[in-house]
Amino acid sequence: MDVSAVAAPPVLEVCGLRKAFGSLVAINDVSFSVRRGEVVGLIGPNGAGKTTLLRMLATLLRPTSGRAAILGNELGWGNLAIRRAVGYLPDFFNLYTDLTLRECLTFFGRAYGLPETTVTARVADMLAFVDLTDKGDVLIRHLSRGMVQRLGLAVQLVHDPGLLLLDEPASGLDPKARLQLRGLLKRLSLEGKTIVISSHILPELADFCSHVAILAAGRLRLFGRVDEVQQRLAGVRRVTVRILGDPRAASAVAEEVAGFRVVDVKPGALVAETKRGVESLAELNARLVSRGIAVVGLSEDTATLEELFMQISGQEGER
Amino acid sequence: MNLSANPLLLRYRCSLLRPGQFWVNALVYGLVAGAILLLNGLLYGCTTTTYANAHELGAAIYVQFLILLAILLLVIGPVNTGNALQVEQAERSYDFFRLLPLSPADRAVGILIGRNLAMLPFAGLTTLLMVASGCVGGIAGLFQVQVLVALGSATAAANLAALLISQRQRLPRGPMKANQVNSLLSVIVLASVIAICAACVFAINQNAARIRFHFYALELPWLLVLAGLFLFAAAWSMTGVLRSFRVETGPLFTRPGAIAFLLGCLMICAGLFWSSFHDACPQDAGSILAGYVVVSCFPLLILLADASLSRQDYTDILAGELEPVTLAWVWSRSNVGFWLGCFAIWAGAFVAFGVTGQQGRFGVPLLLVCAVTGASFLFWAGLIELHILCAERNPKLTGLFTVLVAIQSALPLLLGGVLGSKSLVVFSPFGSLSLLAPDSGSVVSPALVLAAALLHFLLGVAVLIPLNREYRELARLPHRCRGA
């Protein structure tokens, strides 16, 4: 873990944020913070408030109450410093169809204050990043939906924002375009960009999200590192041990380790659960080996984001 | 403000001034301008009946180029400007536009100039051709300057109004939706444009450069008075445009701004009617006063639509209060309270104008008109506010309230007409203006007028009862929200 990143002030700090549309409360008392380099996946069922939250952070919607700060700038209506610091890609958008890609990126670069001397090079970099260099002089109206989506990403990156807010960036894309976009997002996360991304297509988040925020009915149900959230939701740590030999002997040894309960025994493997921390896995492994059991694999089973999503959706449905 | 650094100009230059488009526009313009010159030249050269001399030819071409310029600046320009945000919305790029880190002034200037980049060179060329033909036609330089000043101010007003209307059209809000009132204003602006063109033609043909118009005691060239009115409209439109870009939601006018706007309009209105009212004979004075009432009501109408808080605005304001608010607090900040204050200002100005303009000849009738219209205004304001707060839950209320207002206003007039009774007419707020007629005192007794006012007042109170319940619910809102 990057210690300096933890010590640095958060890129995004949200405190008691609330948005009401008349009597409907879309976002209710949401608080969390995001540090530099973190990629937060915002998940939740339809109507959970994901888009409302992102639009408030992008200064497109005025919060009813609460506060948020982005790179030290308090969220305020029409705050130009925040607008310069943020890149926001709406869920459904288009760009100026009567401009070429290069003209469009140049326009946004200039509007976001890039010096004239650097804007041309930056535009070329962005076109290369989204793999649209050969389309630079084509009118946007001639692009496919996937290309427009990639161009949208380039538009939001041209001014090198400190925080990228992406609302369902893969919606409406075919599988190939989705894969391309996922590749770009992965690269951005590897480059250390701070990103808050909402999506219904959860596998696309799982690959590169460091944190997850689960929204339901306008409230933030869970927020934290992906593994933490997975464990908190599951309540227990579930581990599969693959062994050579009789699994019943191994099962008996595992039951001896404090806090472990064997829940399944199958040929060549057993499944055990514990509420203890990650160090308990090392202890289990050591105990099995010391009793002469040949352990060939020990892995922790984690819930996928999809399972978390379904779990939260299920809880909301029961409510 | 550095125009060349405005990125919106770059964006529009790229899309509107591509060589292919520019040359098509140039060709169209060349054909129109060429046709004007060619046809007039042929008429001058080949016939002797149309133009007697070069002066007449020049004056005729001047008028034709003036009309062309008016079409470019006052029709095509506002259409371009007014479409800017609609195009952004239609193309689904509006969020990006909103997020641009540009000041409201940069946005406004970028759209006003940028969207008209393809038109402005041709407007400049037309101006040159117009001035040249005016010189040939012997049209006085001072008059030409006045025409250009009036046209320039009308251009500013029309384009800014178009931009403002397009900003407000995104927000279905208020009693009559703001865009309905704004559409009405567009018709007025368009009518003004046509009137300018007609007046210019008249002025040139009748050599009316010396026509003067009275503004209070001042005697001014009529074109300059017109220019002043357009500049007033342009200044307020610009204020509105900047505010709409800065705030985006909420009413167009702040409350102090609304009062300043109303006072400005009332002063201008009084200035325009003052001289004719002051010098009018008793028979005409009542009609002039009624004309003043009708014209001075327009700013009130604008404020009803554009200075009103929506239910969402109330929610946001109340959520900002740290302590629970009382019902009285809500009433004091409500639309109804504010509108009644505006009406009081209007009524005060009306009485002051009527009393001072005719040395006190109008006194009691003015107060009676104020009593009837004031009580009616209470009823209307209550209905409009109820509509703002409840129409979301029940959209059918719009129809019901419209019918109620129509019956309250028109039924007495219809009954008065059918039964031939002048007394019944005063039960309508519009009919109450008949009290300003010289012989009204002998036909309608003050007691009857006060009864009419009382009836409207009771109707108003009846509307305020459910409104009070809505306000009570709003007053409880912050509590609920915090607890939620």
Widest sheet of chain A: strand order? 6-7-8-3-9-10
**Order of H and E elements of chain B:** HHHHHHHHEEHHHHHHHHHHH
Q: How would you sum up the major sheet of chain A?
A: 6 strands, mixed
* Helical content of chain B (DSSP H or I, runs of 4+): over 70%
The overall pLDDT of chain A, averaged over residues, is 85
Unreliable residue stretches of chain A: 1-5
% residues in beta strands of chain B: under 5%
Strand sequence of the main sheet of chain B, in spatial order?
A: 1-2
Helix content of chain A: 25-40%
Strand content bin of chain A: 25-35%
Tell me which oligomeric state these chains represent: heterodimer
Question: In words, what does this structure look like?
Answer:
- The complex is a heterodimer of chains A (319) and B (484).
- In chain A, strand 12 (260-266) and strand 13 form a beta hairpin.
- Chain A starts with a helix and ends with a helix.
- Chain A has helices at 3-7, 50-57, 80-85, 101-111, 116-129, 145-157, 175-190, 203-206, 226-234, 247-256, 279-290, 305-318, and strands at 12-21, 24-34, 39-43, 65-70, 73-74, 86-89, 163-167, 195-198, 211-216, 219-225, 237-244, 260-266, 269-274, 294-301.
- In chain A, helix 4 crosses helix 5.
- With 319 residues, chain A is α/β, with parallel strands linked by helices.
- Chain B has 2 domains: 1-249, no CATH class; 259-484, no CATH class.
- Chain B is 77% helix and 2% strand.
- Chain B has 19 helices and 2 strands.
- Chain B has a two-stranded antiparallel ribbon with strand order 1-2.
- In chain B, a hairpin with a 2-residue loop joins strand 1 and strand 2.
